[in-house]
Design goal:
By secondary structure, the chain is α/β, with parallel strands linked by helices. It folds into two domains: about 5-145, Response regulator (Rossmann fold, 3-Layer(aba) Sandwich); about 150-210, Arc Repressor Mutant, subunit A (Orthogonal Bundle), CATH 1.10.10. About 55% of the residues lie in helices and about 10% in strands. The chain has helices spanning about 15-25, 40-50, 65-75, 90-100, 115-125, 130-145, 155-165, 170-180, 185-195, 200-210; strands at about 5-10, 30-40, 55-60, 80-85, 105-110. A five-stranded parallel beta sheet has the order 2-1-3-4-5, with helices on both faces. The termini are far apart.
């Protein structure tokens, strides 16, 4: 492969042996080239500013401010570089700080060599790879930002149809006939919508449906 077409990578880790091992393997990959190394956060930011790598592979715990400081500076100096955190730590606080500071991917050092090379390739394409715990942290953050889904928005399309029928005073049998579904299915939908709306009976459903404007008045 043409050298200019290779993925340009910087490795930042305060352990020489780790950097050497990663470099030795990545140099066997025809589509990856190492353009710099650093043993601390400050040096990592400087190397990236000078070399403008496609992907930065860095540890969270390093002298000179740590991985978070390096991530923040790299995001400022070389915003086109994709940062991959490769660390031994899966603490929630580390994950949150790394993602907030600009890390695209977060993986642990127990990852296999071939898998790591694939993470780098995906990062180059803008695709994130997250360790299971990192993915859980990100999911929880998104849920917290959006807030819980409640009320009518929590109902499925079919449950809304059942709600409409209940508001019109139809029995389960009549609902089943109108919607072309079985009686047991109707009971399941009724039970689900009662739970989601935090109501106890069909009368309350009908009252709330009219009161909240969830159904159109005839």
């Amino acid at each position: 492969m043409n050298k200019s077409a290779r993925i340009r990578v910087v490795i930042a880790d305060d352990h020489d042996l780790v950097r050497q091992g990663i470099r030795a393997f990545l140099e066997t990959q025809s589509d990856i080239t190492i353009v710099g190394e650093a043993g601390d956060a400050l040096a990592a930011a400087k190397v990236c500013a000078r070399t403008k790598p496609d992907v930065v592979l860095l540890d969270m715990v390093m002298p000179g401010g740590g991985g978070v400081a390096a991530l923040r500076q790299i995001a400022i100096d070389t915003p086109t570089s994709r940062s991959v955190v490769l660390t031994s730590f899966d603490r929630e606080s580390d994950i949150r700080q790394a993602l907030a500071a600009g890390a695209l991917s977060y993986v642990l050092k127990d990852i296999g060599a071939e898998a790591l090379a694939d993470v780098i390739r995906k990062a180059h394409r803008g695709q994130a790879v997250l360790h299971a715990k990192a993915a859980a942290v990100l999911t929880q953050s998104l849920r917290s930002a959006v807030g819980p889904v409640s009320g009518i928005d929590a109902l499925s399309a079919r449950e809304r149809e059942v709600l409409q029928c209940i508001a019109q005073g139809l029995s389960n049998g009549q609902i089943a006939e109108r919607l072309g579904i079985g009686d047991k299915t109707v009971k399941t939908h009724v039970s689900n919508l009662l739970s989601k709306l935090e109501l106890t009976d069909r009368t309350q459903v009908a009252v709330q449906a009219w009161k909240q404007g969830w159904v159109a008045r005839p």
